[in-house]
Write a structure and sequence with these properties.
mainly beta; 0% helix; 3-stranded antiparallel sheet; 4-stranded antiparallel sheet; 103 residues; Immunoglobulin-like
Length: 103
């Protein structure tokens, strides 16, 4: 798991994750990814996976457009058992979406 990350940049704002791009090492095995969004950072660890998910392969991958809104999010990365993988980077485009829906 990577995160939690505040999507709105503060505790007072929600944010929208509008685009993600994963880059794996050139000799990396495949990695399945999911996004977990919640109003709170703590809630992301038990939140259900957002509708957007996918698999990244070695090298630069195509961008995905999840449009996940919330206060915080985590990326959950899972590789096949006994297969080595390496993450170079995840690039994300996030925009502020307004005041948090929860107090």
């Amino acid at each position: 798991m990577i995160g939690p990350v505040r999507l709105g940049g503060s505790d007072y704002h929600d944010g929208v994750l509008s685009q993600i791009t994963g880059v794996l090492g050139v000799a990396s095995g495949d990695v399945d990814w999911t996004i977990h969004v919640s109003d709170t950072a703590e809630g992301t660890t038990t939140a259900s996976a957002f509708d957007a998910s996918g698999t990244w392969v070695a090298g630069l991958n195509y961008s995905d457009h999840p449009r996940a809104r919330g206060g915080s999010m985590i990326f959950k990365l899972t590789g096949a058992e006994m297969v080595r993988w390496s993450l170079e980077r995840i690039t994300a485009v996030v925009r502020r979406a307004g005041r948090s829906r929860k107090g």
